[in-house]
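It is worth pausing here to work through a concrete case rather than discussing structure prediction in the abstract. The textbook approach is simple: state the sequence, then state the predicted structure, then interpret. We follow exactly that order.
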Amino acid sequence: MAQILDGLKVSQDIKNEIKADVDKIIASGKRVPHLAAILVGNNGASKAYVNSKVKDCAEVGFKSSLIKMPSTVSEAELLEKIAELNDDPEIDGFIVQLPLPKQMDQEKVIMAIDPHKDVDGFHPENFGRMALEMSTFLPATPFGILTLLERYNLETKGKHCVIIGRSRIVGRPMSILMGRKDFPGNSTVTLTHSYTPHIEEFTKAADIVITALGDPHFLKGDMIKEGAVVIDVGITRIDDNSEKGYHLAGDVDFDSCAEKASWITPVPGGVGPMTRAMLMKNTLLAYKHTIYKD
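Step two, the predicted structure:
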């Protein structure tokens, strides 16, 4: 049976480390790091996610600001608020929670964020710096996966890493990072997606499989080789007859894959908590101005 890559434990370790750093900042008489979030509209999942970030800030000792805007807000008003945050010296980093309402040009909004405050790592300047192996803010989910691999000291050099999904938030940056000249990295990377025929031919040859499809139980045990490392980014809410009325499912068919894998992430409790912890880490880096040291 596979050993568990425990994202809950590692994320808590990281938050404890950040809290210790913040305690030193407070002891020195300086202001604490400050993360802001803009939430447009009433998307339930977005509200829950932003609220969890506010809670994380309180846990590590950051100041947080939640700016709520109605779904009817104009793009111009949102851009004006972003400009305010860009110019506010008390705000170290901020995020605009996605998705945005249909009247918004998402690309225009992301481009408006000051790259030095873009702790989500979505701005093209930060993405480009990442691709060139320059220091920058890494997108929180790929950053969390790298940190899990690092903390468990799992070898990636010379390994074949197959990534399923090519989103700008996970799959595409993950493919770049796993191929970089660093640890974790130095892997041979295959990026697959919904148009890849016979995808199991790739996954069966992989030493590391990272799946970010949003397709529950897609990856079955007969699609991986013995001893593979399996990282499940997918998380889908599935209605059921339980007390909560739903359960969360990943892209990986956990039971069948756990019989063959050497290491595996659970859902929930794997990549999700790591994503949140790395947003805190990026905010601390922004506060210290260490990210653009090249």
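Step three, interpretation. The radius of gyration is 19 Å. The chain has a mean pLDDT of 96.
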